[in-house]
Write a structure and sequence with these properties.
Elements (H helix, E strand, L loop, with lengths): L13 E7 L6 E4 H8 L8 E6 L4 E2 L3 H6 L4 H14 L19 H6 L4 H10 L4 E5 L7 E4 L3 E2 L2 E2 L2 E8 L2 E12 L6 E4 L7 H12 L4 E7 L6 E6 L3 H13 L21 H22 L5 H11 L2 H4 L5 E8 L6 E4 L5 E6 L7 E11 L1
Antiparallel strand pairs: 1-9, 2-6, 3-5, 3-9, 4-6, 7-8, 10-17, 11-16, 12-14, 12-17, 13-16, 14-15
Length: about 375
């Protein structure tokens, strides 16, 4: 039972949407400073939800941010590992705008070439929506990967909800049909699939005005992951697939043009690759102040297993529910280009995968 609003010490969940203007393509922006200015006594809420409305800007999980000591240098170095894997201006199909039939000629003139930012978002495990134990005196970084397009700064938005506790109101299992292709991605926002309509109906049924939806692969679903990003065909069906086949496909460092088939490359080329990775990981460890013993393990893992093993591909993702200003009803919060996406790198049995969907109310 939710206490009445005049109950001493209780305050209803409170939301603010921030407008952000990045100053550079990559930037860490502490949103907690802004939130505390916008919400009186934000610190009284035990928990806070942070939601990015973009596919090339998001948040780290709180545990990872804490392991990086909430230090901007350490976070930047961590993201730098993935910037090196996915450098700008590599031969991404997503950036070959003449192939993008969904864009008009006018749109092609201004469309950002940002496949590297999308792949960095997915590969590093950035989240569109995170839940933090609320500590207003600690930074919460909005990680911007594509803040500048040409000479113009992008317009960014992020929503933050302070709340007291969470209540699980429903949990169900949904079967998602997949193709016969071993490497594939399924857009869960696709109207033909009906997934979004189904979960919105449940939000309406329970009258959830503020909360979250957790979408997680069933425990026995292997060789698959979930993310929230732009479902653009060339990005999902070509660039991401190339990364899953060969994690260093796009890496712009000495020796990586020889890594099209890691199992077949000469020892000398593999030594170059190992040298380059050592330099990258060492740069990160030096700045983050972490144990040097991690270097060999990280490098060996990167060189010996498919990308799906060391990319931080998640088994779950989260969608925010917020009250619609016009209808007063809860709606799933999604940016224009955001879609929850199921990615698989091996064919599913029966050409279907099961996900568990949990509906949680903020109180």
């Amino acid at each position: 039972m939710v206490p009445p609003k005049d109950f001493t010490g209780y305050r209803s969940p409170t939301e603010v949407t921030l407008e952000i203007k990045p100053r550079s393509r990559f930037e860490l922006i502490d949103v907690n400073e802004r939130v505390c200015e916008e919400i009186d006594d934000f610190g009284q809420f035990p928990k806070a939800a942070y939601c990015s409305l973009h596919t090339t800007a998001g948040y780290l999980e709180q545990n990872l941010s804490r392991r990086l000591k909430d230090n901007p240098e350490s976070v930047s170095s961590f993201m730098g590992l993935f910037h090196n894997l996915f450098p700008p201006e590599a031969d991404y199909r997503h950036d070959q705008l003449h192939l993008r039939d969904e864009l008009s000629d006018a749109q092609k003139l201004v469309e950002p070439r940002n496949a590297d930012s999308h792949l960095t978002f997915i590969g590093s495990g950035l989240e569109n929506c995170v839940i933090y134990k609320n500590k207003p005196d600690r930074p919460v970084y909005f990680v911007e990967l594509d803040g500048i397009n040409g000479n113009d700064a992008r317009n960014r938005r992020t929503s933050v909800i302070g709340f007291n506790r969470e209540t699980l109101v429903e949990k169900l299992t949904v079967e998602i049909p997949t193709s016969s292709h071993p490497m594939d991605s399924i857009n869960l926002r696709d109207e033909k699939l009906g997934f979004f309509d189904q979960v919105q109906e449940i939000v309406d049924y329970y009258g959830i005005e503020k909360g979250r939806i957790d979408v997680a692969l069933k425990w026995n679903e292997a060789n698959a992951g979930l993310t929230v990003n732009e479902y653009e065909t060339l990005l999902m069906r070509h660039d991401l697939v190339e990364v899953l086949r060969n994690p260093m496909r796009y890496m712009a460092r000495r020796g990586y043009n020889m890594l099209k088939d890691p199992r077949a490359i000469p020892n000398k080329a593999k030594n170059y690759a190992k040298y380059d990775l050592v330099q990258i990981v060492n740069e990160f460890l030096d700045k983050a102040g972490l144990s040097e013993s991690l270097v060999e393990r990280l490098v060996d893992k990167m060189l010996s297993v498919p990308a799906s093993r060391f990319l931080r591909m998640k088994r779950s993702t989260r969608l925010l529910i917020s009250e619609d200003s016009e209808t007063g009803k809860g709606r799933i919060v999604q940016g224009t280009y955001q879609s929850p996406i199921l990615v698989q790198w091996r064919k599913a049995e029966r050409q279907a995968r099961k996900v568990e969907v949990s509906f949680v109310r903020f109180e």
